[in-house]
Amino acid sequence: MIGSSPFNPATVLRTNFGFRHEHLYEQMSERIIRSDSFPADAVATDRLLLGAKVVLCTLSMLSNRQIDFFIRLVPVETLIFDEASQIEVGDYIPVLHRFQQTLRKLVLIGDDKQLAPYGQDDVTELQSIFELPRLRNRALFLDTQYRMPVVVGEFISRQVYKGKLRTDHRISDPRACRFVDVQKGKEEKMGHSWVNHQEVTVVVHIARLYHAEGKSYRIVTPYDAQRSLIEKELQSAKLPWEDKCFNVDSFQGNEEDYIILSIVRSNKVGFLRNTRRTNVMLTRCKRSMIICTSRSFVTNVAASTLIGRMVVAMGQEAWMDRRDLVRGRLL
What we know:
- This protein is of the alpha/beta class.
- The relative contact order is 0.11.
- The strands form five sheets. It has a five-stranded parallel sheet with strand order 8-14-13-11-12.
- It has helices at 42-49, 59-62, 68-73, 93-98, 133-136, 150-160, 197-212, 224-236, 248-251, 275-282, 295-298, 306-314, 322-326, and strands at residues 10-14, 32-34, 54-56, 78-81, 105-108, 144-145, 166-167, 177-181, 188-190, 193-195, 217-221, 245-247, 256-262, 285-293.
- The protein has 13 helices and 14 strands.
- The chain is 30% helix and 18% strand.
- It starts with 9 loop residues before the first strand and ends in a 5-residue tail after the last helix.
- It folds into two domains: 10-139, no CATH class; 174-326, Rossmann fold, CATH 3.40.50.
- Residues 1-8 have low confidence and may be disordered.
- The radius of gyration is 22 Å and the shape is globular.
């Protein structure tokens, strides 16, 4: 954990690069050591660590020779890799070689039904540790999820986890998953990404309703151009925008009470062809989610995708009446 507890202090090593949500690091600034301020001797390093025995950093940082003083003071005995399904098998080799004398335990946490190792779309041979049969057979499957409402959890279990994922959740109302038919929404190319202006309008309207009700919500979309456009419109509407809107890849591992999804596409399947990424997108809500999309698109062109199958599973009653949306009735 990250914190200032005297019993289990931790520190974070990070590179000196800009990040989209840079403001989040301000919340733990006392525990962050930037690469451009790494000390050149053990004494200065010890002062920076403040007695921390838990160090958080990226896999690439573990291979960086700049951290030599850190690992002399805090020998690496246990490595815990979060989101390990996104790490290609070969990327572990430098780290395992470097710490072979001190390493005692290796823990890998991940889900091979969510984001794949970077580049697998182009190089299909890339594999994570969970996709190696000899190692997968020894993996422990955590078979109960507590995040998603029953209607979402049971659908995901059937469609993605072969019915093996159980749901333990107090919300069983089928209205925890709703769709808004953005009839006039059209996908438009913007650079190397896509936007849908009509969906932006609907998303901001829903965000305004949630904000007025004091509800905790986040907005997720597959395309970065759409994320940027939504943020811009939230600002124009004088609504909270920082830490509110994310693309799918940046939101894996995160969750929120209420999720608003903007699918963007209205003509071609695009992103929705990737079941693993779609799985991430559909599994972030703790109380409910509203999916903004074109009904004709998800029931025709995208009918065979995970979200198309969700439309069928949720039934006609999952589609919100536009009059209710205008009147501010989200349930």
